Amino acid sequence: MLTADKKKSIKTISEQAEAGKLRRLLRFTTACWKLNLAGAMEFRFSFLLTVGTMIANNIVWIIFWGMYFERFPVLNGWTMQDVMMMWAAAAGGFGIMSIFFGNATRLANLIVTGQLDVFLSQPKPVLLNVLISRMSVSAIGDLVFAIFIFVGFGDVSLFGTLKFALALLLSTMIFIFFCVLAGCLSFWLGNTEGLSFQLFNALLTFATYPTGIFKGFGRIVLFTVIPAGFISSMPVSLIREVDLPFLYGASATAAVLCLAGILLFYRGLSRYTSGNMMGLRR
Amino acid sequence: MKTIQVEQLEKIFQVKKKQHGLSGSLKSLFKPQYADKTAVEGITFSVNQSETVAFLGPNGAGKSTTIKMLTGILHPSSGSATVLGCCPWTERSKLAYRIGSVFGQKSQLWYHLPPLDTFELMSRIYELRREDYKARRDNLIERFELGTYLHTPVRKLSLGERMRCEIAASLLHRPQALFLDEPTIGLDAVVKQRIRELIVEMNREEGTTIFLTSHDAGDIEKLCDRAIVINHGGLVFDGQVDYMKQQFLTHKTVQLVLENDPGELAAPGVSVLNQGGCRITLSVDTGITTIEAVLAALMASHRIVDMTVQDPPMEDIITRMYGTFQVKEVSL
Question: Mutate which of B99, B106, B197 to test chain A, going by most A C-beta atoms within 10 A?
Answer without folding.
Answer: B106
